[in-house]
Amino acid sequence: MVDNMRNSTKCWSFSKNNGREKELVDCPVGVGGCTASWQELNGRLKEFTYQGCLRRHYSYNCSSDYCRTIRSARLSPSNYKENAKYASPTDDVTVKICCCTKDGCNDFVTSQNTRLGRKMRFMTSQTEMTSQIEISSLMPTRMTSFETSYPTWMNAVTYCVIITSLFAIFAYLLRKVLTSQTFQDKLCHHIRQNITLDEVKEDTTPLAESVTLESNLSEDNVVCDVIVDFEDVIGKGKFGIVYKAKGKNQNCALDLCFKIALDSADSRRCHDNEINIHEFLRMRCDDRIVTYYGTRIVDGKNGIILQYSTKDNLRNFLDQNTIGLKKCINMLCDVTSAVAFMHEMNYDGDKPRIAHRDICSSNFLVNQDLTLVLTDFGVSMVIDDVTGNTYAEHLTAEGAPYYVAPEVLDLSINLRHHGEALTQADVYSTSLVLWEIVTQCDDFYVKPPPHSLPYQHDVTTIHDLINHVVVRKKRPDFRFDLKSLGSRGTRDVITNTIIECWDSDEECRLSASCARDRMILLGKALDDVISDNLTGGDVTNNDVAIDDVVISIDDTVGLIETVV
């Protein structure tokens, strides 16, 4: 009897199904050890179900001093009567059994190859499980009340709300940074800075420096006997001064401009760059580009000889004059044609694509017949169509501030590698010049407003300009008179074209060639109306469709008669 008692094993006993409370009992003689079982849901502890003695006929290796897992079986949720409140049919419910040989060894169990941890104390209630500090440290992956109480779709919604909130916070902080005074100061500094001589190496120059030889010019563009009046200053810019000059071409006297660089490295660089741009442009002459007569050294000063325009530049002309509908459309055609010519490549290989980068109303000259020509190519860039890159590596934002595109103001444009972006920035600047012309057309107003530059009355500093154009995405107002109902169809075509050219997204803007084609088509339609009106043709029942916008001839006949 004593021997039997000495060989018996003490085990913890508990049964969830029978309602037996946990207690330490003596196992019958011949029992090989202790056992315990529990359930796991998706690899995490769900509940303990049984503790007791292990009979010898269980052929398991239970020779360890702690309760080691000896069997694991997956239980189908549909066959488990209590699974409905714990699991869905897609969950993994597993029953595990462990055994050991030491007295009371089944109070601690281990679960191998699971996420339960190394060792767990056997507990008979959820309250006891959550109140044990020891178990919290040993079972870091035990299911929480949140995981067992809420369905998966609610977790997904929560994650979406968190991600959306983080994105909104990020957008708010980004806007605060973009509109902060410190950031805008850096932008202003970037816009105003230029290339220094030390930064630019010989192999990064956009084009090689050269002086035009008379033999390279056509006979019509060769001038002689150039006399410069250095007392007669036509204009002075950031990089150069323009003087009035005279010369002869095929024994005909010409009024000329003589442009020299200021005494700085930047000015000399722009001066040389302008010469090289003219060298490219002269290979394909265009009436909308200022005539180039080569270079001369006069009184020790190396200058560029250009045509002289009697009506000054477009900005000064619009300050003092209004224009009729016909002249307005002609000027719009000239502006868009000049920019399109710059942007288009000649496939004979003698003219590449060129981005002007300083388009504004003061860089268009007005001839005696009120035609316009584009000038000032000091910061222009030649674009390599093969790679889409520009020849220069050291670039900064250029142009008159009011005309600078939004993507250049906020530095989102890549000035080193995106030639297409440079041309689309030109299109934005062109749209503002078109706006200046349209606002001085007396057919669109009872009385045209005084000429003003874009945003002149909206902003006073570069900080205001960035906030107005980049952040708020504002554009100039046409301010058409509601009482002036004439030329509505023509006006709509023009305004829609301008609006499409100054879109905030540079990829959504029209190309310069598309804007040019619209204006040319509009001019031809107007010419046809004038011709029919002069010949007495019946035009009262005709409409001219231009890019899905219909110009009502009935509304324009009266004004066209006035223009004619």
Would you mind describing this structure in some detail?
The structure is a single chain. The protein is of the alpha+beta class and 564 residues long. The protein has 3 domains: 2-145, no CATH class; 210-308, Phosphorylase Kinase, domain 1; 310-563, Transferase(Phosphotransferase) domain 1 (Transferase(Phosphotransferase), domain 1, Orthogonal Bundle). It is 33% helix and 21% strand. It has 15 helices and 19 strands. The protein has a 6-stranded antiparallel beta sheet, with no helix packed on it. The chain has a 5-stranded antiparallel beta sheet with strand order 9-10-11-13-12. Strand 15 and strand 16 form a beta hairpin. Helix 13 (488-501) packs antiparallel against helix 14 (512-534). The longest helix is centred in the first third of the chain and has 27 residues, at 152-178.
Shape category: elongated
Name of the CATH homologous superfamily of the largest domain: Transferase(Phosphotransferase) domain 1
Binned, the helix content reads: 25-40%
CATH class call of the largest domain: Mainly Alpha
* Number of domains as seen in the coordinates: 3
- Biggest sheet record: 6 strands, antiparallel
Average the pLDDT over all residues and give the rounded result. Answer: 75
Work out the radius of gyration: 42 Å
Our measurement of the CA-to-CA distance between the termini, rounded to an integer number of angstroms, reads: 135 Å
CATH topology of the largest domain: Transferase(Phosphotransferase), domain 1
Q: What's the architecture of the largest domain, going by CATH?
A: Orthogonal Bundle
Number of strands: 19
Strand content: 15-25%
